[in-house]
Amino acid sequence: MPETNPESEIYRKQTVEGKALVKVLWTGGFDSTYRMVELSRHDVIVQPYYLSDKIRRSKNLELRAMSEISEDIENDPGTRCRILPLIINKASEFKPDRRIVEAWKRLRNSSNIGTQYVWLAQFAKSNPGMEICIERGSSCSGTSYCIRQNGKLREINDSGLIYRVLDQDNSNTDILALFGSMHFPIIHLSKMEMLENYRNMGFSKVMEKTWFCHTPVNGETCGVCNPCKQAIEKGLGFKVSAAGLKRNELELKYQRFLWFKIWKKFRYRICGY
Prior knowledge:
Oligomer: single chain
Distance between the termini: 46 Å
Radius of gyration: 19 Å
Strand content: 5-15%
Number of strands: 9
CATH architecture of the largest domain: 3-Layer(aba) Sandwich
CATH class of the largest domain: Alpha Beta
Largest sheet: 5 strands, mixed
Number of helices: 11
Structural class: alpha/beta
């Protein structure tokens, strides 16, 4: 059963003007936008954050998506939340401490967790209770799998807001070092479940505006960056451009050949994806 009275400050939402303050790391992508839509049905104050990475070529497209989506949510007649202006931080501002780096290295030995979680851990440590939108993955080596294998998730009901946290007493120290300061609002949901919920809440058009590609080509999804590949694998191929789908098809066809592996190393410099 969900817990209605979290006993630890790390489990509880802060309040502003008598309302819960929900801090969300928002990228404009499918998963974090789903949480923004979900929160719109609650009488809460939402503070979105964005981490700017100088090597991420999708920044302008992500910011544009968030601007348009914010307006759509605010203008929806069913919206009850108040969305505060987006706070943009530079990822480089959050230098991970040694404990976080060493914990990531050990977890990386058995799980496929990206390097972004090193500085995300430091960001969340500086902003306890930050919602990080990690979905329920199907992989036996992905991030959600790593969290479940190394920690115990507790479901929290904080004045009607449902999310999950790592149990501080029943999770190992490495997983707590990386994810112990975070709240997980969608870790129990798959992309297909979120897609259905988008439609049921009447936000299909908002879902279509989400942006997840890291290396866009001429303003369109590339089809071969990790987020594009995951979208295709998880049934969201309709959100990838026709050219992107073709690139993905060719990569799957030729990826076993040595010449393609060599070409792939230089492709980003030459083609930008």
